[in-house]
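Propose amino acids for all 148 sites.
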């Protein structure tokens, strides 16, 4: 069995760039945003942040080469994708960048066969619903293993 190699992809919108190039990711920025600004990764170690991105398809959002946002997709590149760690710097919110990022993730050419897209959010339902996401229709099918 061969290892899957996914080519880097870039999207451009005015002075903004969205890229899946891992080399461009600023892990100091990413880790700081996740541990200081998110509700889901408050006390996460830097090693866990790096490991999470290593096991996912990363998306970095940049304004003139400065990272101002990111997301990652946990995926098998065939049937399933879980969008997570979506963050836009507070100074850049309100410019439609989160919507653009989420739209580009769904449009990534290597994800064309993915038909099950999932995410979890406490507070961004309206943003994702505008993009076509919906609340799980049959939540009884979903199961979780509780954290220890």
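Proposal:
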């Amino acid at each position: 069995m061969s290892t899957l190699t996914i080519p880097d992809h870039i999207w451009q919108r005015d002075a903004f760039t969205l890229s899946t190039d891992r080399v461009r990711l600023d892990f100091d920025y990413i880790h700081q945003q996740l541990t200081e600004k998110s509700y889901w990764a408050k006390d996460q170690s830097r090693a866990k942040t790096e490991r999470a991105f290593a096991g996912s398809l990363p998306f970095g959002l940049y304004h003139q080469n400065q990272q101002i946002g990111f997301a990652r997709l946990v995926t098998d590149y065939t049937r399933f994708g879980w969008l997570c760690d979506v963050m836009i710097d507070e100074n850049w919110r309100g410019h439609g960048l989160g919507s653009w990022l989420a739209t580009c993730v769904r449009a990534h050419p290597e994800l064309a066969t993915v038909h099950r897209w999932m995410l979890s959010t406490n507070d961004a339902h309206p943003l994702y619903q505008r993009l076509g996401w919906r609340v799980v229709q049959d939540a009884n099918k979903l199961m979780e293993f509780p954290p220890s």
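The mean pLDDT is 94. The helical segments are 27-37, 46-54, 97-107, 125-130.
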